[in-house]
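Final report, closing paragraph on structural work. Over the funding period we assembled a curated collection of sequence-structure pairs, and we close with a single example.
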Amino acid sequence: MNLGLRGRKAIVSAASKGLGKAGAFSLAREGVELTIMARTRSDLEAAAGEIEKETGVSVTPVAGDFNVAEDRARLLSACPEPDILVNNPGVRQTPTPYADIDETEWQQWFNDHFYSSISLIQMAAPGMCDRGFGRIVNMSVSFIKFPQVGFAHTHAARLALSGAVAGMVRELVGHNVTINTVCPGLFDTDALRTNLHAHAKRGKTSYEAIVEDRKRNCPAGRFADPKECGDLVAFLCSDQAGFMTGQNIINDGGVYQGLF
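Its predicted structure, as stored:
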């Protein structure tokens, strides 16, 4: 399928590894020019070089922190007229009892998982509307559909973003600008492996046992390839997805058992 994206320009954050990198790669394979951000310059430049070598598209790396206002401004300055915006906070999460989450931590999670994305949407969407095309994809987690104990702070912030988007999309879709949220489950990334090692340590069990437990509880019986998430991101940015907006799309191998 030709997604109609060749020559478009995209901003992708947390794009040096994991699902952010997968999304950037999938867009580049469709001929999208990229501006990508991550905190670690060496990893970011390596990712940019890898994407350019495979796809031949132009990739501009901007080292910085998506969650810092000045760095977001630099990111948009490097690509002032994006057609596509992929918001990926790229913040790893660890379980915290709700009673131990203090005011500073609540504020930090809302900055990282709510305001940072909203800020870039507010900066990029008006130009998209003027140009008559825009695709915005927010990266979240599948657990926003079935919140887990120990993650009250991250669920609250991510759900706030989905709620805000639900109120914005009807103002934008008439200009051919959409916003959707991808909610991935267990994908084979460095972040997942780090998280599972931490779970194993806390539970005083082996990493291998934790991996087998997670796979056993996934109807697909496996962890997903990051490309499976990246290609979903690319589709949501396509011409064909112009009638789909305001959706929180679960991509988790059947773990979530709800209808809606």
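The chain has two domains: 9-185+226-250, 188-223. The beta strands are 9-13, 33-38, 59-63, 84-87, 134-139, 177-184, 248-251. We thank the funder for supporting this effort.
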